[in-house]
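The freezer alarm interrupted the setup, so I double-checked each line after restarting. Inputs confirmed:
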Amino acid sequence: MMGSALDKIFDSYSGESIFKNKRVLQISHTPVTISHRDQQIEAVASILAPALKGERASNLFVYGKTGTGKTLCVQFVTNEILKRVQDSGKDFLKVIYINCKLKKVADTEYRILAEIISALGERVPATGLPTDAVYSRFIEIIERKKQLVLVILDEIDQAVKKISDGFLYTLTRLNSELKNAQINLVGISNSLTFMDDLDPRVRSSLGEEELVFPPYNALQLQDILRERSGEAFAENVLDNDVIPKCSALAAREHGDARRALDLLRVAGELAEREGSKKLTLEFLDKANQKIERDKMLDIIQNEPKQHQLVLYSILSLHDSEKNPLFTGAVYNKYQELCQTCKFESLTQRRVSDIIAEFDMLGLINVDVISRGRQGRTREIKLMLPEPIKTRAREMLTEGLMI
DNA sequence: GTCAATTCACATGAAAGAGACCACGGTCTAGTG
DNA sequence: CTAGACCGTGGTCTCTTTCATGTGAATTGACGA
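Predicted 3D structure, all chains:
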């Protein structure tokens, strides 16, 4: 019995694959040509061009929603610059790319700095040193020779939200202390309003040049998908209306190309898994649901126990109580649960923050409302669709042993 | 009926503590020649 | 004599608590028409 089940799975893989080269659809893949971004690439290139001669360019700040090609374009241009410099046999340019959003990699001032240093080929302990010691280490390293260090800080808004903008100020001001080396900053942000709540000094030095990446529209997304799918899939696999539908779905999500590619890839995987020779609309719909579902469940699963307990409280109240829910009720339920499963209960202050975090994650929707004499509170609405909700409840019941 | 004061139930902020992790330098210990 | 084990100190980081302050509309109660 076991054997036949395995046979079925492996057979569907060993047969003709509908993929020709799946890697093309992965987000890490850098395409040879970038469509519909000529203008932006030119702009980035002309701003950063002085780096070709080892001169400090203007600090650049790039905005745009997720999946609009910001990172791609900046990396493309800096790679070209680096290639040219290296081709001429020089090595006065260092390009360092840091994604500030990756947890445990770069979400504190110390770690960002450590990350830069390790990109320069030096080691620095993961913790244990005073931050200013790391700064002087950094200065010492780059001062060893005359060079230009181009630091690209991706998702910089995330970092600043967590740390404060102080480190950006220090970083921009560092140049006046350096004799040999120069630092050039490129900030990439998803949030359009990010610049507004920065310290004015940082704003002026970081935003010497600014660039906005508009979202792709549905037609542009179609072009991109056609290009990539040509390489990714075998011939005659795609139904005609798959790409338009796919780009329409993604365009609805503020023109996110990454999402569109993901969708296509997952749809392909689903089709392949079911042994289908064709990628039809049906698979696209399934993929759309699956991505959403996996994302949510993944988030829930990886939350700490206390957070899960709060979420479980919300889930169970959501069914029994009348909507909407308020903080007080959730907290009471939470304390009750803590007693039954012998957990230490957190303070209301903390639970309040946890609820706010869930809102950020999109698991729930929260409005702060004032109910007059009934005080001020959060109105909590659960955002999980029915199937996900059920699955989440099962998962939490199991994980928390309730 | 109108209007300002009151009041509720939290939201929101700031500061500080606990506990985990880690580097560094000094001291102790056991193995080596 | 020396390498490695071990310890104390001092640093970061995350999660949490404690204390303090803020908030916005329903409610209240005084006031005047």
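Quick read of the result. The mean pLDDT of chain A is 84.
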